Amino acid sequence: MRKIKAEDEGIKGMLRDEFNRCLELMEQVKQSMDSYPRGRLVVKKVKAKERVYEYHHLQWREGEKVLSRHIPEKEVPELQKKIEQREAYRSNCLKLEKRLEYLAPLIGEKKPSKRS
Q1: What domains, with CATH codes, occur in the chain?
Q2: Which of 19, 34, 31 is CA-nearest to residue 96?
């Protein structure tokens, strides 16, 4: 009987280590995400004197407002890569959140909040 309890404590310790590792990793991912632009790239079209002009805008939300900023054509490829990288970080963050939600009840922790 004592052996089973010791094994349970060992497993619980491993789960707690994994929980802490995931928390640290999620903080690192969130810090990395902050260095990349938020939003998405939008192509706007304007018709002037029978010609159609296209230009790019970066759109993002702050509270209830949708904000946008004009992006010069030469900056579009680099910005697109940065947006894709931020999306990859966001995907990893969501996976870590799900893992933390799974681990929390196993070790008796409170579930972490969705957004900090």
Answers
A1: 2-107 (1.10.287)
A2: 19
